[in-house]
UniProtKB/TrEMBL annotation:
It holds the Pfam family GTP_EFTU. Residues 12-230 form the Tr-type G domain. This is sulfate adenylyltransferase. The keyword RNA-binding does not apply. One of its GO terms (molecular function) is sulfate adenylyltransferase (ATP) activity.
Amino acid sequence: MTELNIKMAEEIELLRLVTVGSVDDGKSTLIGRLLVDTKGAFEDQLLAVRKKKGATHIASAAEIDLAMLTDGLSAEREQGITIDVAYRYFATPKRKFIMADCPGHEQYTRNMVTGASTAHAAIILIDARNGVMPQTKRHTHILGLLNIPHLIVAVNKMDMVGHDQAVFENIRTEMQEYCAKQGINDLICLPMSALDGDMVAVRGDNMDWYDGDTLLETLESLSALGDIDTKPFRLPVQLVNRPQTADLPDYRGFMGTIASGTVKVGDEVVAVPSGNTSTVKEIVTFDGHLEEAFAPQSVTLTLNDEIDVSRGDMLTHAGDKALDSKELTANVCWIGDEPLTERKKYLLKHTTNTVKAMVASIDFRRDIHTLNKDESDELAMNEIGQITFKLMKPLHYDAYVDNRTTGSFILIDTFTNNTVGAGMIV
């Protein structure tokens, strides 16, 4: 196995997850169950969230308040809800996981967008007693826009409905129909009880009518990297390294994280927006020099020619350049307190580049219940719509469906410097 393949295998071991759903669907309890069943929680953590005060050891999982393993803020413990995104790590012999527990309340939808933006897979929890709620649809629609590769619908609290198969089948049908409207056809649905542990890490004896894998078995089988290394090469330049030391007087290295594709020593590359070309002289990493690098490695490239490259520029393969325009259309999740309106100006931060942008038009606002396109003259907090922007200078980008990194951006309020929107380029 080559050094490159070994590094790729190490990357594949890690899967980034996000759990979403409506209020009190059991997201924190599920993560607590996974931490306990995979031995991902320390003894002092378990003792801190024990139900029986004064106990000196934990005899069984039933003695633990599972949700408290992730709800760490005092306000969360007082109210019994999740407010901020909580990240937890656990592992099995087959794979490592980082899971984000996102809040279910509508007012914290912006926190959910943050937690889901880097995920490889999402678990959509649904309370079997309540069925598909409006917030479930909102989260599912956002996950679809974010192009999360793997969506898992986990119908939780099946113990509260007598493990009734008909309840599960009705919810599965409704979610499949809703997802099909926005082009999501690869959907995994499974029943479970996070509190009792049925169908989480072990099958249990209460749902023999379901013959699919448990949640943990499903997570272990998912692909983590997808096809990011087969896409066109993109390296947004984060920093130009000029040490200017005695032994490196003329060194110029271009540092950044490879957004997609692979690059080899000797490859011809082009710098955008200048259009100047050169060939790769060296690929330098913390661990030494490489002959080939791939996404999402952080590297420093040196070139054989002295060409103009600075922070915010992008290196691509010649003949495989990104799109170039002073106007772009994007799906926007609005998370600002003040609504987005036409003619308003913002800073648009795309990879390592920041440009001034003006809202040219609000093409439509998406109705999360029906997925209809409604006319609107503004986007309020937590609403989603398609927006067209005019930019002060050309931006080099890809469509979000082709590249999640070079196809996404955030909007920054020029007065408060707050992040007010997350965009996925159409």
